[in-house]
Specification:
Layout (H helix, E strand, L loop, with lengths): L2 H7 L2 H5 L6 H8 L8 H9 L6 E2 L5 E2 L2 H17 L3 H12 L20 H12 L5 H8 L3 H9 L12 H14 L9 H22 L4 H34 L1
Antiparallel strand pairs: 1-2
Helix pairs in contact: 8-10, 11-12
């Protein structure tokens, strides 16, 4: 057996022990299990606080063996169990605090596994579970009835069978705060138009997977759509904050 063959057959964590890797080397380590992995995906996970590599004096990322295995764990759970990144982060934060949770929220096994159509359906149903009546939306958001009616008239919130979802609640809460600054729903119509354009972009990207009929594929498409949406929000925030920074210069 050649030395190169020996190296290739050495388990990843043992072979990498003590080494510091750049982002290209991390991609090489993970691409076998996660062919779609990219540098932007790793940077996105860093932005969400799921991994925190060290930096060189020049600002380049330095990944340890622990960082690589942490990324592998996150990617496997996201791929195989369709868990939201927030759920995974909450678990990892507990580990970082020295706690030893036995399972992820909802009683799921920590071992990544192929998700069944039934489980994917249950996860999707769980996300749709809570809805609010008009009165509940008004009470929980702190908005007036007139404000909620106005938000609906401008298409900023929508009801299904006269019930509103958690997203409508978030919109209403934000608009209550904006109203305090003199910003009314009529001023926010560009946000609706921008959201529709972003949705069109996301739908084009995930269409090949979303068109499949099995529930697991639809769940995977939804997770990809959420990831793209988060990246778009990060881009939007960076562009706006950049302009605000220029106001302060």
């Amino acid at each position: 057996m050649s030395a190169s063959q020996s190296v290739r057959r050495t388990p990843g964590p043992e072979r990498l022990r003590g080494r510091v890797l750049n982002i290209g080397e991390v991609l090489s380590e993970l691409s076998g299990d996660f062919p779609a992995i990219s540098a932007s995906k790793i940077r996105f996970l860093e932005e969400k606080g799921l991994v925190t590599p060290q930096r060189t004096a020049a600002g380049y990322r330095k990944y340890t063996t622990a960082d690589v295995e942490r990324l592998r764990f996150v990617l496997a759970l996201q791929r195989d169990q369709y868990l939201p990144l927030k759920v995974i982060k909450d678990y990892l934060d507990a580990i970082d605090r020295g706690e030893r949770p036995e399972s992820l929220p909802g009683g799921m096994s920590l071992a990544p596994r192929a998700v069944s159509d039934q489980l994917a359906g249950e996860l999707a149903a769980r996300a749709r579970a809570r809805t609010l009546t008009f009165a509940e939306l008004v009470r929980e958001s702190g908005a007036s009835s007139d404000l909620v009616h106005s938000l609906a008239s401008y298409g900023l919130i929508n009801a299904t069978d006269e019930r509103y979802d958690e997203h409508a609640l978030k919109v209403a809460k934000a608009c209550v705060q904006l109203e305090a600054h003199g910003i009314e729903p009529r001023h926010l119509r560009p946000f609706r138009a921008a959201a529709d354009r972003e949705l069109g972009l996301v739908e084009r990207v995930v269409a090949p997977v979303a068109s499949r009929r099995d529930v697991a594929s639809k769940a995977r498409a939804a997770e990809t759509a959420r990831e793209i949406s988060d990246l778009c929000l990060s881009l939007h925030s960076a562009l706006v904050q950049g302009q605000i920074a220029r106001m302060e210069a």
